[in-house]
Sequence to fold (295 residues):
Amino acid sequence: MPNIKIVSLFFAIAVAALLIAVTSITAWIPSAAEIKGCMTTSMYQVELCPTSKNYVPLNQISSYLQKAIILTEDGNFYNHHGFEWDIIEKNFREGWESGKFKRGGSTITQQLAKNMFLTKDRTFIRKGLEAIITDRIEKTLTKKEILERYLNIVEFGKNIYGVKAAAQAYFKKSPAQLTVVESAFLALVLPNPVQYSKSYYKKELTPFVRKRLNEIVGNMFRYSRINQEEYDAAVYQIQYFFNPEPPADMFTAGEDDQTTLRELEEAAEFEESVNVPASNGDPIEQEFQESENPE
Fold:
């Protein structure tokens, strides 16, 4: 009989502990109103309010930047529901085999969930909360709203949060005015903003940054996010990014200009010719076409 009482006591304690844990986790899960409303983010203490003067609507953000960031951070953004299960499975399998689990690989929605409501802790509880909040965000906001909020709070450098601050800090312009190369640079810094932004402060591209810029611009062209003319101009501009451009009279008009661009392209180590796939049926391109031509 005493054993039954002890077992019952332990069972009651376990149930109580479980209820407390569930209640605590539930308290962390934001409501739809909290996701849509104004707040100060948990990660970096950034004001996020769609009605504030510092908030930039998606239609006032360069489409080049939108395309560059989706291609570099979350290429399947418009197709998934917050998670890239193939990547999660692949990283887990490789981590299990090697004993080292990779960080990163988060979708834009997962990054938004972390930035808005969580901290930098890397515990299993936090990862569980991140998954629940990610699912809640996907069910509450449209993809365009998710991208818009993400671009308004993401870190672009030391004490630089959001696209408005980044465009002004790096290029002294509005988010709508960002060029292909400027957009590629901002996309480039996202994995490690403080480290990768050093090229700006040194006013000189490191070999890694130069190579990565060319890769991003090349991918934008390869996947039909920019056309041939925009690509050629971007390849040229990378050569003088953060450095003075030579006087215009150094170049002759007509065919010589095209030759110069080709030479610059070769210097950027693009060894293979780029075959542009058709964009018909491309969900990312369709999204941008719709946003640029609202009904």
